[in-house]
Amino acid sequence: MKNRDYLWCALHMMLDDQELLDRMCPACRTQALEDRCPVCGLRLADAEGSRNAAFDEARFAALSRGELP
């Protein structure tokens, strides 16, 4: 694929997302736009410290040093 093809795909994905939001009622649209944890679905505003519970600090440190877990 060429760069213009990636741009076309990204633009149409954004347009598809906007069309889905436009079909929702205001309450559902507000809920759909909230930031949520990709693992548990908890609203990030409600999470203690807004920290991702699925983040593995030890694994991140090992990968930062170039070590494989």
Any descriptors?
51% helix; flat; single chain; 2 domains; 69 residues; mainly alpha
What percent of the residues sit in helical stretches (DSSP H or I)? 40-55%
Count of distinct structural domains:
2
Tell me the radius of gyration: 18 Å
Can you tell me the residue ranges where pLDDT is under 50 for at least 5 consecutive residues?
Answer: none
- SS strand fraction: under 5%
- Figure out the total of helices: 3
Give the ordered list of helices and strands.
HHH
* Global geometry: flat
Overall pLDDT confidence: 86
Strand runs, count: 0
The class by helix and strand makeup works out as mainly alpha
The N- to C-terminal Cα distance equals: 34 Å
Q: Sheet bearing the most strands, described? A: none
At a glance:
This protein has helices spanning 3-22, 26-32, 57-64. The chain is mainly α and 69 residues long. It has 2 domains: 1-33; 36-69, no CATH class.
Provide structural commentary.
The chain is 51% helix and 0% strand. With 69 residues, it is mainly α. It folds into 2 domains: 1-33; 36-69, no CATH class.
Helix and strand arrangement:
Elements: H1 3-22, H2 26-32, H3 57-64
